[in-house]
C-alpha cells in the first residue's frame, strides 16, 4: 500500500513539473510579422549595410543602420521602464587584416542587456547580423539590401526584445546586432572577447542568420522546417578530455549540442507544428556563422536558420540573367515564417532565463553493474533534478526521471553501457536548465 501511494505521489509530482508554462504561448502570440516586416524594410532602405560602407550619412550605410538599431533598443527600453542597458561595443580592425578588410574599420556591435533579477551575470544571447554584401565581398558602395541575409535575423532580434521586455527573468538576456560578419566574423569575435574580459557567465548564443526564406533552390517550399547547427564538442577541450571521450563517450554531447537539443525540445513542446532539424555540424558545409567565435572562446553557440536556402538571393548583385532574378530583396522574405523563427528564439530565451543554472559537475558510475549511478553539484534555486538518458544513436533525450531535490540517484536495471546520460536542474515553475553530460566518473 505504501509503495502504491509513493508511486502515485511521484506521478503527481512529475505531472506538476511537466505542465507547460502558459506565458510561453503568450510570447508566441505576441510576436508580430508586421513589425518584423517594418523593421526589415527599414534596414533594406539603408541601401547598403556593408561593414566598410558610409558611417556618417543619416540615411545610407552601416552607420545609419546601427544608429537606427540602437534607437529601437532605446525606445523599447523606454517603454519598459529602462529595463534594457543599451550600448555600442566596439573593436578596431586594421587594413589588410584579411583580404576583405581593404581599409581600417571600427567594428561596432549594438548590445541591449535585459538584466536578470537573481543571476544578473548569467546570460543567454540572441543575435542578428547588421551587415550585408553583394557578389564582390569588397564592394562597399553598391546597393546591398540584405533583406534575408541578414535583416531578417536582425529584425527578429529586435522583435524578441520588444516582446520579452514585458517580462522579468531570473537570468539576463542579451539582444545584439553584430557587425562585420561578412568580413570575417569580427563582431562576434569582439563581443566574445568582451564577454571573457567582463567575466560573463554565458549559457549560450542563438545566432540567427537568414530566417526569412521558405522557397529553396531545390524546389522545396516549407514554412515549418528550420535548421539548428551545433558543434559536437568544444574546440577548447583539453587533450585529457579528448582522451576520456574514447572510453566514456560524449563525441556528440558538447555544450553547443546540448543547447541545440534544448531548443529542439522547447520548440516541439510549445510549437509542435514546427520541424526543427538538428544538424550535426558547426555550420553549413565549409562555412561559418557568428556563433563560431563564441564556440572558439569556449561558450555554447548554435545557428538557427531556414532549412531551404535559395543561393540566387544570397551575396548577389541585383540583376536578371537567363530569366532568373538575382538579389537579396524584400519580396523574397516570408514574414510569417520569420515570425515563427523569432518566436522559437523568444520562448527558448525565456525558458532558459526563467530556469536555474545547470549543475556545474555531473558524475557517473556503475561500471560492470546492472545500474547507472549519477551524482551532481546542487544548484541554488533548483527545486528538483531530472535525469535524462537515451540510446547512444539517438539525437534527442528520449527518457527521463524526476528525482526530487537530491544530489544523487541510481537508475536500477539500466545498464550504463547501453545509453548516454545527463542531468538538468528544475526550477519552481518547471523550467529546466540545459542538460549537462557527465564530466566526471566515479566507481
Automatic annotation (TrEMBL):
Q: Which UniProt keywords apply?
A: Hydrolase, Metalloprotease, Protease, Secreted, Signal
GO annotation, biological process: proteolysis
Signal sequence range: 1-18
Annotated SUPFAM superfamilies? Fibronectin type III, Zn-dependent exopeptidases
Identify the residues that the record assigns to the Fibronectin type-III domain, covering every copy. 356-433
Instruction: List the molecular function annotations (GO) for this entry.
Output: metalloexopeptidase activity
* CC per GO annotation: extracellular region
- State its location(s): Secreted
Give the matching Gene3D superfamilies.
Immunoglobulins, Zn peptidases
Primary localization: secreted
Short name of one Pfam family = Peptidase_M28
What PANTHER family does the annotation carry? METALLOPEPTIDASE M28 FAMILY MEMBER, PEPTIDASE M28 DOMAIN-CONTAINING PROTEIN
Q: What is this protein called?
A: Peptidase M28
Organism this protein belongs to: Flagellimonas marinaquae
